[in-house]
Amino acid sequence: MAAGNEYHIPKMVLGSSTGQRSMPVLGFGTAADSPDSAVLKTAVLEAINLGYRHFDTAFAYGSEQALGEAIAEALKLGLVGSRDELFVTSKLWCSDAHPHLVIPALQKSLGNLQLEYLDLYLVHWPVSARPGKLELPIKEEDVVPMDFKSVWKAMEECQRLGLTKSIGVSNFSCKKLDNILSFATIPPSVNQVEMNPMWQQKKLIEFCKARNIIVTAYSPLGAKGTRWGTNDVMDSQVLKDIALARGKTIAQVCLRWIYEQGATFVPKSYNKERLKQNLDIFDWQLTEDDLHKISQIRQKKMIRVGVLHASDPKTLEELWDGEL
Ligand code: A2P
Questions:
Q1: CB atoms within 10 A of CB 116
Q2: pLDDT in tens, the chain (324 residues)
Q3: Where exactly is the site Lowers pKa of active site Tyr (predicted)?
Q4: Would the CA dihedral through 130, 185, 58, 70 be positive or negative?
Q5: d(CA 277, ligand 1 centre) in Å
Q6: Cβ 118 vs Cβ 92: under 8 Å
């Protein structure tokens, strides 16, 4: 095991970004149930010390401010040489997914983060909501049809203005990506989606690979212990057996598996030992047999409600265009 910040995190080159930009495959996730700023700040500083350089936030997570304070502190302490060494992602919330609100929303996120630019700005969901409210889940009466073309044009403008180096989407089906690609002058660099051994996203991964779109896995460990998460991933007997045989933890098996699928991933941990453990996955590999066993795991989508109203199966079908 590597010591201190000697961990080497591989990077992936982002298509369609301003300049040659690359993204560390492993990021620090900040989607938590009850955001505690002090805990988050301490964890970010520990993560930076360990070698993390990629940080994932969103306006809706309520974590931008604390992450920004931690980054400012890390720069002041000289834990990182300059802002350029970091890769910071944030996301446009649904109530701002209207053409005239995209740039102001990004500026607000930059203000929260105390940054001049983001590395990546994502459309959080393919859903627009009535402006002015941050509600989760969004009430049915507040959902309005998204003007994909104009919202994407505004996202492109964000990149042209230098407010972000790259743009992308989150929770987009193949069909919805196809639609964006049909008119985009800057195609999305990334699609961030739920992905773990229980929800492997095989079709989406192939689709994105063929179009030079990087997939980022959120909830790579099944978000155990959160309001939206499941224990199924961390309690999987298949993963337990593989972990035991490899002398690794279940979390490491999950993350290594995602890495071997060619995706990037943003596990959330505010615990130093687990942050370290999640980094220690780049100098070993799963066997063919392990990969085969994982490919046989029964698939079950964890996030059933999404941003919309309570578990209406029709809504879920529509959101994912039947790609379930
Ligand atoms: P903690 O923050 O206490 O480490 P996901 O990344 O899928 O959203 O999952 C997040 C959950 O998984 C959190 O509850 C986090 O707890 C836990 N977690 C993160 N890394 C590990 C690990 N290496 N082993 C066990 N649990 C982990």
A1: 9
A2: 334 456 789 999 998 777 888 999 999 999 987 768 999 999 999 999 999 999 999 999 999 999 999 999 999 999 999 999 999 999 999 999 999 999 999 999 999 999 999 999 999 999 999 998 778 778 888 888 899 999 999 999 999 999 999 999 999 999 999 999 999 999 999 999 999 999 999 999 999 999 999 999 999 999 888 877 788 899 999 999 999 999 999 999 999 999 999 999 999 999 999 999 999 999 999 999 999 999 999 998 877 655 565 555 667 777 888 788
A3: 91
A4: negative
A5: 10
A6: no
The domain that holds 184 is classified in CATH as 3.20.20.100
Identify the domain containing residue 109 by its residue range. Answer: 9-319
Cis omega (within 30 of 0) for bond into 220: no
Residue 1 lies in a domain: no
Q: State the distance from the centre of ligand 1 to the C-alpha of 63, rounded, in angstroms.
A: 17
Between the CA of 53 and the centroid of ligand 1 the distance, in Å, is 18
61 flagged as catalytic: yes
Determine the longest span between alpha carbons in the chain, in angstroms: 54
Q: Whose CA is nearest to atom 23 of ligand 1?
A: 274
The tally of domains found in the chain comes to 1
Q: Which protein residue's CA is at the shortest distance from atom 1 of ligand 1?
A: 269
- CB-based contacts of 248, cutoff 8 Å, min separation 6: 242, 256, 281, 284
